Amino acid sequence: MNKTTAASDKRHFVIKVLTIFTLCLVGNSYVFAFLTASSDRTTIYENETLELTVRYGGQADRDEPNFDSLKSGFDIISNSRQQQYTWSNGKAESFTDWKLTLLPLKKGKLLIPSLNYAGHVSDAIEIQVLEPSTSSNQTQVQQAIFSETSIDKTIAYVQEQLLLTQRLYTSVSLTDYSLTPLDVENATVEQIAENQFQKRINGRDYVVIEVRYAIFPQNIGMLSIPAQRFGAFEVPSRRQFGVFNRRGNQVIRVTEAKMIEILKQPAHSSGVQFLPSSKVELTETWNGDLGELRVGEPITRTITMTAEGQTGAKINPLDLPPSSDFKIYPDQAQIETKKTGDGVLGVRIESMALVPRRAGQITLPSIEVKWWNTRTRQTETTVVKSRTLNVAASADLGDDSDPPLQPINTISISPMEDIEDFSDASRPTQLLTLSLSANVVLFCGLISLILWRQKQNVFELTQASKPVKSTPASMKQLVQEIQKQLQANDLVGARANILKWGQLVLKVSPSITLESLAKKLEDPILSKGFSQLDQHLYQTESPLMADVDLILEQLKIHCKEMRYAIPKSGHRLQPLYPQDSPR
To answer: What is the SS3 string spanning 422-468?
Structure first.
């Protein structure tokens, strides 16, 4: 074989490898290819622009989707293209984005139709185009830079949400925008959005800087919303560039002040809580199987309440009716305020451990929340319906909540007046009788203890002869799950898994309480830790949680003792000479 043939073979081999690699890349791009369309806004005013982003999950060639279908409802102001290619964790991701600035041609509902590219179809998007606000002065339209202030209501109830919008219009290039903070007396203020877009007015294009606020009046009467000040600098022209002229002239525009009439709470809506909102919802979730409820075993119930147009702090705690059929141990509520396009959304999440007290059917009463609908101007009620649960009897024979009194062996003694009648001759006889009786009782107890110990050894040998199926692995997995739950502050779930862990370690029926498990383990460290854990779960006035790391360390120690106690053959035998017995 000459050198020419060898070089040709190498060249063919390299071409084949590159071809296979290219086909793999093409195959991956085809498998994961997609086409999506998204808009930065779905509700705009006439003559305002929106930005449409069309993304293709792959590397597109020089061609692009056909955007002619958009021209029936929009004017395409601009169209730019970006490509990205990443390789992460052995997986290739490729994107091609087209960003279009669209100007609606008419008012009402417009549809961005589905787009097609490379055999993929995007979803259609509905756009609502509103009539422009008439509050702006006609003389402002002729200005190159002007501001506009709008508010959604002129009359509102106390604590009802008001939406304030401040806009700065400019047809010249500006930089370093700023807006003074909004401080409203007798009201709380939340900034919910800050946007920038384009708007065409009488054939003139403007850049619009928009800032939106949610305002919550706290007192009745006239609410004064003060003016704010927009500030910016003109971008200098080329003639103005120089060492000491880095920015152009400063531009100041003052917004319009507003006066809002605030009414007191309606008389027919009086109650513990006045909650003005456009929509209130209650949802219920359970962390556990409702079909496996037992007396004394807790299950976690979570109720989430959301209120549109209100902060989370304004939502009062739920009114949970008491019942003799179960105990409720509430956890600390989670409160959050989210920002949306319609203002704020208040969220309150309440979790509680529910412990049944008796077997049979128990009924959870309904939970009702009354609120003031700001749209209908009426009082409405949102309800979590009542629920009937089937509860089985406890797995343990004893009742850990009220343990029965242990029987006590007593010796009957005659009344005092009879003792005083004893003669000196009869006292030794009585003492001898009492001594013999005590010795007999002690001897019988010792015989019973020896017999019980022998029976217990036989039982342990019988149990030890049975093969153990993956007990160490199960215990290790449970300890890992307990560690995750403690780190996530899921104390109820961790408590349930600790009881399961104790069942694996002791080879007995599961315990109902951590206290009974610690007694069976004879571990004072776990006894103290379990006691503090229960106090933290079921007593609102309890101190802070103990060191959970110490509890986890003790659980792992017991797991290691179990692993070393099991020989490779899978059988566990008692030592020939136990250390606690004489040889």
So the answer is: CCCCHHHHHHHHHHHHHHHHHHHHHHHHHHHHHHHHHHHHHHHCCCC
Matching fold, domains 138-263 and 270-392: yes
pTM listed for this prediction: 0.52
- How many residues appear in the chain? 583
Main-chain phi, psi angles of 471, to 5 degrees = -65, -50
Tokens of 328: 């409720």
**Residues facing residue 35 across a β-bridge:** 56
Strand 50-56 relative to strand 91-104, pairing: antiparallel
Q: Which CATH topology does 138-263 take? A: Immunoglobulin-like (2.60.40)
Q: Is 379 exposed, middle or buried (0-12, 13-18, 19+ CB in 10 A)?
A: middle
| CA separation for the pair 464, 455 (Å, rounded) | 14
CB neighbour list of residue 414: distance below 8 Å, 6 or more residues apart: none
Among 368, 360, 257, 274, residue whose Cα is nearest residue 315: 274
For residue 538, what is the enclosing H or E element?
helix 524-538
Residues 6+ apart with CB under 8 A from 215: 161, 162, 163, 164, 184, 187, 188, 189, 190, 223, 225
Number of H-type helices and E-type strands within the chain: 9, 30
| CA–CA dist 345, 41 (Å, integer) | 19
The topology under which CATH files domain 35-130 is: Immunoglobulin-like (2.60.40)
Give the pLDDT confidence score for residue 206 in this predicted structure: 94
DSSP string covering 45-88: ETTB-EEEEEEESS---S-----GGGGGTEEEEEEEEEEEEEEE
Token pair 């290790």 in the structure block, residue: 476
What is the DSSP pairing of strand 162-170 with strand 145-151? antiparallel
Residue-wise pLDDT tens digits, 259-291: 999 999 888 766 567 899 999 999 999 998 888
Q: Which CATH architecture has domain 270-392?
A: Sandwich (2.60)
Domain ranges of the chain: 35-130, 138-263, 270-392, 471-565
**pLDDT class of 250 with cuts at 50, 70, 90:** confident
The Cα 254–Cα 386 span in angstroms is 55
495: helix, coil or strand? helix
